[in-house]
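ugh ok fine here u go
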Amino acid sequence: MTGFQSRLAKSIYFAFTALIIIAPALYNRYPLMYFDSGAYMEMAVNFEPSFHRALGYPLLIRLTGLLVSNWPIILVQGIVLSVLLYKILSPLVERSKLMWLHFATVVLLSFSSAMSWYAAQLMPDIWTLIMVLAIGGLIVNRSLSVPWLIAYGLILFFALLTHLSHIPLVFLLLVSVATIHFVSKKHLFQFSRKAWITLVIPFLLAAITFPSFNALYGYGFRFSLASNAFITANLGEMGILKMYLDENCDQPQTRLCAIKDSLPLETSGYLWDPNGPVQSHLEGWAGANEEYAPIVKDFTTKPRYMKWFVLSAVKATFRQMFQIEIGSGLQYAYGKGSSPYWPMQAHFKQELNEYLTSVQNKGDKLPLDFFRIINYSSLALSLLLIGWAVLQRKLTSDMAALLVLFIFAYMFNAAITGVLANVYERLQVRLLPLIQFFAILVYINLIRSRVGATES
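structure:
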């Protein structure tokens, strides 16, 4: 087989495995939708800063589908996941068995974890998983060619842009990995200089791109346009905003004082309810964000309120870590009048019939209950296998590094989203497949060790 034929065969193979990964979209007959999908489609067309959406995912929708179709971005998500899984497996298994083990891994993760339900969805959450897998690929592949390093860099850059939580998440991961790297005297996380550059440059570029994009449209050189609104809403869900207002509303400084005895119980009531504090604000998101700035400042600078905030943040982080139910928001039909319907009707008319006649829009017809049971079962088995391997010290140095990375990513994601956004399964389950994937790696390593021992 010539070089061209080999590359063509691999391309066909990765396209096929990508179709397995996005199987829920194929079953649905259209990409799965969430309430926020409509805002991302609209932003892909207008491409202007949003108070509550990052620019990366609309950019990817625009670049891949050219505002004609939503299928290309879903296929890209499947292909990128398949390739990243392949690259992590490559140095850990025998070359002769790589393709079969990769195929088995794709099938297992697609049908026993949350991976496919996120990959098949027109939402940026799958890019959190993609981002962590890309970092994992750089950990275990220490002799990547320049083209592959560039590919990893591009994947990381676009992944960083897809969600505002990704910048602090990767920052914490880089600091943690670097610290362990030097404390362990380079025995763990054996990154080459090229790998570090591949990690750091996309991070710096993405960190500059967010505020630059906002400044370009006259919103100032600011990372987020609505951080105060989101944090204040979460303070309300935590239950400590009411306590703060009771102590500080003797000299009213916010409209929240007028409703302090009837505050919404959840962040959605603050942010998305048409009659809520943000949506009904006379100056909209911008006005609410500026008005709530003193509240956020007090909670992050004054010792009395910092104690409340830290305790609530710890509780929110632990609660977020145990959000494991797949299918959040997918149980609803998003037909006429819904948020995704309007941009579909206005900008993606050629796919409107596909969208309206999808299984999801027939109402509660997706087999979510069945796959939730499968997910719970595979999680239990995975945790048992991983726990046994750790206690029996069956992990290689590379696998130990991956496990530490995955644990840090899962914990940091819980802390960032649980504290700065809200405790919600969609924001945490996006990294849940890391557990099942690592269990597969453990099983492959155990089989490989047994075969080696038998042969010797």
